[in-house]
Design a protein that fits this description.
Blueprint: E1 6-7, E2 10-14, E3 22-26, H1 48-56, E4 59-64, E5 68-73, E6 76-79, E7 86-87, H2 96-103, H3 114-129, H4 145-155, E8 159-160, E9 163-164, H5 168-171, E10 175-176, E11 201-202, E12 207-208, E13 226-234, E14 243-256, H6 257-261, E15 268-272, H7 280-284, E16 288-297, E17 305-313, E18 320-330, H8 344-347, E19 352-357
Parallel strand pairs: 1-4, 18-19
Antiparallel strand pairs: 2-3, 4-5, 5-6, 6-7, 8-9, 10-11, 12-16, 13-14, 14-16, 14-19, 15-18, 16-17, 17-18
Helix pairs in contact: 1-2
Protein name: Heterokaryon incompatibility domain-containing protein
């Protein structure tokens, strides 16, 4: 049995014969409804540091006010006063850590498909993780360092400030949550990493770029961003924790953001990461749209979408840009086996530019 990793205990004050009062720990619980264990209200479930513990641990022992003493692993959930165990997959209940833990790969040595599985699962985990709270915002990367280290040990992929170099294009497509603008997170995470902002982040559902068994994109349109180098400056090398910045060297197509996104009639959906100083439309005049890749939603008859970053010059290095947003354009029509989509009209007069993202 692994060491307990999630515990909620009610504390209450009660009189004692020898003193005026003493503080006693009281375990409070009640009968568990058959087939339903809900820990969504557990305080520790909202904490960022608990996330990787619940995900990486093969089993857990819990004490809570609502459910008393109970246990879970990858195949079952059992409680001290339950009539019978709940077999995983047999009953729909709301225990999120169990669901996440089952998605965590257990392979030794890694299988051929592990790169692909990890690169796709990782961003689902990060979406769940960023919904949680951190007392110290600079802990945004350290609080998943153990998870990143374990994923690295299984896959051999190269970690890059919360993203993976082998799947870097997909990693760049995060956006802030729907609740409002994010804020810049303390620390020096590069602006292209989700760790550079506070609050929840989102990756689109069903997202695929036709990744092969190595986690690499098999087919890329000629207009896709070509990444030539990724450099990360870790505060403590090899710890998967905080960084002192990072750069992506790339060659891609840039277009003025206001020209592309305002009043063109394109079916575009976009988000700015942080609240601009003035109106969004005016802010976009000083920004560029950097095309990332054409992607497909993994469902029948889906239209392809071109994902892009909204970037802005830093005013420091030559062609040095920082990320300020993300979006996509939904293309009309579907590609045929012998031709590419007619994107020339969208990106006409655009030239490939060598740039640095920081």
């Amino acid at each position: 049995m692994a060491a307990p990793y999630l515990m909620e205990i009610a504390a209450a004050a009660a009189p004692a014969p020898s003193t005026n009062s003493t503080r006693m720990v009281v375990l409070m619980g009640g009968p568990i409804a058959a087939g339903h264990i809900d820990v969504s209200g557990c305080g520790l479930q909202s904490r960022g540091w608990v996330f990787q513990e619940g995900l990486c641990s093969p089993r857990g022992l819990y004490i809570s006010r609502r459910h008393g003493l109970w246990w879970d692993c990858r195949t079952m959930v059992d409680a001290i006063d339950a009539s019978e165990p709940i077999m995983t997959g047999d009953t729909d209940h709301a225990f999120n850590p169990r669901t996440l833990r089952r998605s965590f790969p257990q392979a030794e040595p890694p299988a051929n498909s592990l790169h692909q599985n990890l690169s796709f699962n990782w961003y689902d985990w990060i979406m769940s993780y960023t919904l949680r709270n951190l007392t110290r915002q600079p802990d945004r990367l350290p609080a998943v360092a153990g998870l990143a280290s374990y994923a690295f040990s299984l896959s051999g992929m190269t970690y890059a400030a919360g993203l993976w170099k082998e799947d870097i294009l997909r990693g760049l497509t995060w956006r802030r949550g729907n609740s409002g603008y994010a804020e810049r997170a303390p620390g020096n995470a590069p602006t292209w990493s989700w760790a550079s902002v506070t609050g929840p982040i989102h990756y689109d559902e069903f997202f695929t770029m036709r990744v092969d068994h190595r986690g690499e994109i098999k087919k890329r349109p000629k207009l896709d961003l070509e990444i030539t180098g990724t450099t990360i400056h870790e505060v403590r090398p090899g710890t998967f924790g905080n960084v002192q910045g990072g750069e992506i060297e790339a060659t891609g197509i840039l277009r003025n953001a206001a020209t592309m996104l305002v009043g063109t009639g394109l079916s575009a959906d976009w988000y700015l990461d942080l609240q601009p100083a003035g109106e969004e439309n005016q802010f976009l005049e000083s920004c560029q749209v950097l095309r990332l890749a054409m992607a497909y939603r993994n469902k029948q008859n889906s239209k392809p979408q071109v994902y892009f970053l909204i970037v802005r010059k830093t005013g420091e290095g030559v062609n040095e840009y920082q990320r300020v947003g993300r979006g996509y354009i939904e293309l009309r029509g579907r590609p045929s086996p012998k031709s590419e989509l007619p994107e020339q009209g969208i990106w006409e007069q655009a030239e490939r530019v060598t740039l640095t993202l920081v």
